[in-house]
Protein 1
Amino acid sequence: MGSPFDIAELKWLLCVHVEDRLTLARLARTSTCFRDWALDVLYGSQMQVCSLIRCVPSQVLQAAKTKNVLLHDMVERNQKRIMTYFRRVKNLMILDREEELWVPILRSLALLVPCIFPNLRELILSDFNPLYMTSPSSFLPSSLHTVTIVFKHDEFLAVWFPAMSSRCPDLRCFFFPGIDSREPDPLILSSLLSLRSLQKVSLFDSISPSTFLTLASLPSLENLTLPSIQQRESHEMLPSSSSLPSQSFDSLRMLRLFQINHLDQLPDFPKGSLPSLRRLEVMNCSQWICERMLEHISSVPLEELDVYGVNIDSPDDMDAFFEHLLPFSRSLEKVSIRRARRNSPALQSWPFGQSCGRLLSLPRLKELVIKIGPGFTMSQSDVDRIGNRWKGLTVFQLRLPRRMEEYRAGLSLEGFTGFVAACPRLEIAAVPFSALDVPLDPSGPHNTHLHRLAIGSAPIKDGIGVAKFLQQGFPHIRHFLYSQLHMGPAELNCWTQVEQRLMWIDDF
């Protein structure tokens, strides 16, 4: 009967679950059975080439430092030993630090082998280096599926795009700042179009209409970060519904709009397009861009909406914005609106019913996060309506008011308990309530899923009483957040007692 350590998958799993890298290195040096698997785990992900270069023999490193003319001969003599480590790299980030060490060694190695990292799957380039221009194929094995380019260099793209299209047929993810929006190279666009397996493309600089049309022609594209579209000349028109190829973006499931602030920078998606879209993200765009996009996809069964950096200055503006979500009443499950680009001019907190009442028309909602404006207050009628509509709610987070007097006129601790009990699956909550009055009989537990609670600067008198109430009513709370900046010393002391009591039960 063979040994269980003859099973390759078992040896791999054992090495992967060794958390201490020093222990793993000792295992690689002392066990012939585990050597290859331990080295694969140790060198599989490299955050910089410099840590990998340390595996090179010392005489080669010295020759690289002194720029010795015999460096190439030394690399050739130690080629097998160097490639023993380089071939194990799956994920690699190349930084521009200590360039005098790694560039001459990699340049010499590129002349000896077809590909320096033959099993590479993910590559991140943080800074431009001329070495990438002379030997792009050395960094592009056929196994590569993700490329991230942090810098913008049009000549580099003109060389790398054709190389990627010919050497990386299974490339799935591509992240880069963008292609020159003024005069995109036709060779770049044709090479991009030939990457038929691309599933995820992220651009973070303005692109030209021709680049957008090329992206629309990618048949497998599922995830797209789309920046603003800039015309090269004043007479050039944005892509219209008639100019888009048939079945464009049919596979797209996630679309992120990035820094689009004018309607003339947003393409005109035809009615009925994006049939597979399930998630929309809007980052640092204007409110009307977000609303226009929601109108474009009103017939799509959208499930998730994440809005970041959009300014909404009043409850009426928020109510008008949420009106655009009504067409998705049968599908929308997650709504998140976070971090406006400027602070709200309002001083008084917004009533939840007035600003977010339209959201109650979304019966499938499971997660709601609203972190903009001056804060929200809730009434008992809001709690009753939420309990009747959102039985499957798991996350409910509002921006909480700063001033303690705004909590007193809203929910009591008993009202908060009723809210959480009405949403039996609730796991994360940030709800404004006052803890001044503690119910005598908690009659709990009310919710066994709630584990994270934020209370802002809620007023409180009896810290021990509130702690006991929460322990019995919500026994699984382990993360407890409160605002120390907007409380008096007495309230801060009480909430500290609550926190200590809730954290104390973790010891048992």
Note: The mean pLDDT is 83.
Protein 2
Amino acid sequence: MSHPDILERSTQTVTKVLCTAFLKSCPISRTPKPNRSTWWTPELGQIRKETRRLYNRAKVGNCQGDWNAYHLGFKIFKKKWKKIWPAPLRSPDFVGSTKDREGKSYFAKDSQEYLQLLGQTRSLAVTKGLPQ
């Protein structure tokens, strides 16, 4: 073997070792995006896609049979979606209600009443701990 052959083989070995070390320390994988939902599944996406297709067909054709198919598809999508959607977002405490420091719940019928309740309960929580 000549010097260029030894040098070439050594260079290939070093390159292979460096590439292997890099791939082990920095795996090629996709990091989750911060705005992506962890609960959205490919199955739910496929059902939504099919439901949108049925809606567009019903909208263009304006036929009762197409609308019935869309409504059935939408019911299936909604049922699957409700099973998968995170439970804290579905609870009655999440929308239109607030709790004071003692844990008593206050429910609002509309957004204006909700804002008033929120201001009252939060101010109660702050002022109850202060000396009179």
Note: The chain is about 65% helix and 5% strand.
